[in-house]
Design brief:
By secondary structure, this protein is of the alpha+beta class. It contains five helices and 17 strands.
Length: about 300
């Protein structure tokens, strides 16, 4: 019998009012559950506007403790238990004074706290000054056994790195969930980055024979000085293990996207295609431990059996 699971993705705009954003997200989670969603994922840093557009120490005031008894986690846990849904929620974590992470918490359908993932890859680009705010994650690449299946979590910039998707899939993840906040500035709106964003993630689904669900925010958020800003391109989607997009939201509208997937289908895919795991030549991948291969040593052998 198929193991049918419905994934819910919450794509929304954000205002300067944190409480307003929280109440909107809770309402949209209820909406997703009413549509039958079993596993629901928020967009990245859903409680606030994307504050990394500038380096401002005042923004550290948005951070909070993230553990099973912290205020936001308890509120989300109660909602997960009430609705009997698995929740993946993206939060700005204060670990200690001067030590902060971009973190996703995972709650089971009975409200129990399963753990958290801390974003590993931290960008530092115009309008994305995340290295000012976030320390890279230190919990590794994880999957979580939930009531509805085994899920892995990455966060935004992680989605560009095939190593991150591979290592998460190697922990047994059947679905990769990726909260995101990504968009165009005024200078790059025609560059096609949104297409690259979609293609690379569909590739992760294929390469790892798993489902992948990426959820992005939408709307325009100006730069504090008003000269520029980010137009988040939405387009949240669910991809099948053969790369096909099963469901996708619009670029510019708030949406609750719900998509049904068959987790038993992964068994047939992985038995039919041996490249995700069986045929990997781990004896030939030593150079992955290098930042860059400047010169090939012709006397060195790689992957010789």
């Amino acid at each position: 019998m198929p193991r049918l699971v419905k994934i819910g993705l919450i794509q929304a705009t954000c205002s300067q009012d944190v409480q307003e954003n929280v109440e909107k997200m809770l309402s949209m989670i209820r909406n997703a559950a009413s549509k039958g969603a079993n596993i629901i994922c928020t967009q990245e840093l859903f409680k606030s506007v994307y504050f990394c557009k500038e380096e401002d120490p005042e923004n550290f005031g948005l951070a909070e403790e993230v553990h099973k008894d912290s205020e936001t986690v308890l509120r989300l846990s109660e909602l997960a238990s009430e609705l009997e849904v698995v929740l993946v929620a993206s939060l700005f974590e204060k670990r200690a004074l001067g030590l902060y992470h971009n973190t996703a918490v995972v709650l089971n359908a009975d409200g129990s706290y399963l753990g958290k993932y801390r974003k590993m890859h931290i960008p530092d680009d115009p309008l994305y000054y995340e290295k000012y705010y976030f320390t890279p994650g230190d919990v590794g690449y994880l999957s979580f056994q939930t009531q509805y299946g085994k899920i892995g979590v990455l966060i935004c910039w992680d989605q560009w790195f095939p190593e991150a998707a591979r290592l998460t899939a190697m922990t047994g993840a059947e679905i990769l969930l990726i909260p995101t906040a990504i968009g165009y500035s005024k200078t790059d709106e025609s560059a096609g980055y949104d297409q690259a964003w979609e293609i690379v993630q569909r590739g992760h689904a294929v390469a790892n024979a798993c489902y992948l669900a990426a959820v992005n925010r939408t709307g325009f958020e100006p730069e504090p000085n008003g000269s520029n800003g980010i137009r988040f391109w939405g387009s949240s989607f669910v991809a099948a293990p053969y790369g096909k997009i099963l469901a996708q939201a619009s670029k510019d509208q708030e949406e609750v996207l719900v998509c049904e997937v068959d987790l038993d289908y992964l068994k047939r895919i992985r038995e039919g295609f041996s490249f995700p795991f069986r045929d990997r030549r781990i004896d030939s991948y030593q150079q992955l431990n290098e930042l860059y291969v400047d010169e090939i040593d012709e006397n060195q052998t790689y992957g010789t059996l």
